[in-house]
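User: Here's a chain of 486 residues. Predict its fold as tokens.
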Amino acid sequence: MNAGGIGIRILGLGPGGGELLTRKAWQVLHDSQEIYLRTRLHPAVEELPAHLVIHSFDDLYETEGSFEQVYAQITERIVELGRRETGVVYAVPGHPLVAEATTPQIMQRAAAEGLPVEIIDGMSFLEPVLTALGIDPFPQTVLVDALEIAGGHVPPFPTSTPALIAQIYSKTIASNVKLVLTTLYPDNHPVRLVHAAGTARQVVEDLKLYEIDRSNHLGLLSALFLPPLPRETSFEAFLEVVAHLRSPEGCPWDREQTHQSLKADLLEETYEALAAMDADDPEGMCEELGDMILLILLHTQIAADNGEFTIADVLQRVHTKIVRRHPHVFGDQRINDEKEVLQNWEKLKEQERQESGNTKGSLLDGVALALPALVQSQIYQKRAARVGFDWPDVQGVLDKLNEELDEVIRAANDEERASEIGDLLFAMVNLARWYDIDAESALRLASGRFRERFAYIEQAAHEQGCSVSDLTLDEMEALWQQAKKL
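Assistant: Prediction complete.
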């Protein structure tokens, strides 16, 4: 790596005192006249050879506004020093290529300038942390930076995999990490905090997740071990289940399914999920959404088996689309309200159609023809409204509704009457849209109420020893009103 000359040597100081330095690292330190430290805050620093002239970049942490700026300044300075005839020795905690942000930046800059770089290996923080925990990281422990977790909204790894989270260096970081982790993990999930692993000050704390920001030992050498949740909690584990079902050693029924054979199942599960939502039944929603995910993954696995696409393709496509269509969230575009969001959404979709060469496409393309009529008409109206094709206020909608009702009354024959009733229903859906009501759900709820009230009439008739058809219209109306009160 350093065949071209001295250049830059990046040396790992190990995770603890001088006894954990490698022999090669100690030899380089002994043979050098000066050294540049990313930080003096390391237990091995006080044991460095006495003749060394020591420089550090600790002052940058006080003067720069972010870690990124600190690392950029360090990179610039080390590359500058590496141009010298004597080169530079730059020392960092642990191993230069384990949880060390400056090393890749320096290597990239040096490569662009033709400067040689030599990595002087050091023991990383991982070995003493694993020793303190008494665990083997295999087969699949995840290594994560606390800053990455704290800057997100959900954990960026499967819940069924244990995780080792480095750089829990303050109560603020611990609190932010905790908030993100508790989106998927229970508050009382058992965790372990390891402090100053490999040193005389080593401490291992067994805590509940909600307690991690209360630890009095948090510092630069703190790491969090997060045991996994059950295997059944992760998306990846369920992908394996579905793939297993479709495999030669899987289920004969699942192996025989096709996109066409599962269409009705997907529609049925969708309606069952909607029914759970209408009933305000969280337990039912949890169950039915799981069934929907199963159908989606079965369709995806069928496609993968046919060589059409994979779940990675599906996720990449929808991820890219959603990020691209939210420049006000993931970019620098400024949008003031929901109306502007929807208008910009349609503009972006139109731009995508043009970029794909679909210049003849309509704003209403892509709305499934198999959708229930109420749903389909409401989607059409929403899309048209986003580009300004709408009444200026709700009064225009009400006037149109009355106009369509009058046209139904004045229809001359069944054909005209059917057409006008369609227009009346379309206008009614538009009124629902103006009041921000889902027309399909509203009608489904109304149908449900009718069923319950009519069942009340049937039960009352049964208790009277007769059938509903034996009741007079007035008697049925009276029972109907009783049902409404109940």
